[in-house]
Amino acid sequence: MVSDIIVECIDRRELLDDRLKCLLSAHMNVEIGRRNQCFFVASQGNQVVGALLGLRRSTTTMLRLFKLWTSPAGDRTAISKAIYLELDKWSGPAGVDAWRLSSDRAEDDFPQEFVALLKVTSTNSRGDYFQHWRTETHPSIGSPLYTQTTDFTCGAACLMMAFTTFDRSARLQRGLELQLWREATSIVSLDGPGGCDPYGIALAAATRGFCARVFMSTNEPVLIEAGDSDANRDIIGFVQAELRSRLAERSVRVEQKPFSIGELRSAIRRGGVAIVLVDQVETHAREVPHWILLHSATDTFFLANDPWFERADHEQPVDVIDLPIPDVVLDKMAWYGAPPYRAAVLIEPVA
Question: Are 69 and 50 in contact (CB under 8 A)?
């Protein structure tokens, strides 16, 4: 009976004792205790009879359900329902607006009765996932996902996603990714290739006929943290000045001010997209500059495609497409550097 089953949500790694870690690891075939993991553990008497593993970045209101295990000795239907009821009860206070299943693993990882409780169907799917929105208002989906193939081409990957927003026939290939990176980077470092520059991103878009606009909160060189010497930091500043000069020649507008959340929302509702610089300290606990693409919006949150997924945390492309990010979270994560600055490139339909 469902009433005999007690379900506890464990959303912090330190709350998992070694015995439970071993049990869950054995039944879920996954390393337990990684970042962003959330467990719903069902017990009957003194026995653990089921568990649901979810993955969730701290910056998103989407919980991706990874796998459900039920004990062969238990009542699978009752265990599934008990876990679902606790998931539903927990999601509201936890700020979870959407449940997501990977479409290629749903049949293998979840009993049919549990999927039915979630109310995920093919009518609200997008390619690689099924999703149930717990909110009444949610945006329509936008740009297709392209995940970067290197550590340093997030800006180029975002550009490619932006291009396909307006031209679905555009071919997303690694050759284009690296070509765009070569055009858009200003980074010089002994540590290896650096990422894309906001002025370079805008210029690469403008040279291909797209309407671009830049928000930059400072007139000083940015992303110079990647420079390992004063000479290299000077080169970064010089290249950025050259890129900005070329933007002026193309009449691409550069607004020297920190963008507001409302300005991003207005651009997206006009049919545009926003490539936004964020700090990965919010998503992966490391201070690294990173570009993401915002492509859809409601009155309170945005949908983002993040070209980076963290394999070490068991993330897959399904974990980084159409991520709902609340306004207040985006406003916090879209600052980088010391002193902090913010940058965004808006790409909109040609009038």
Answer: yes
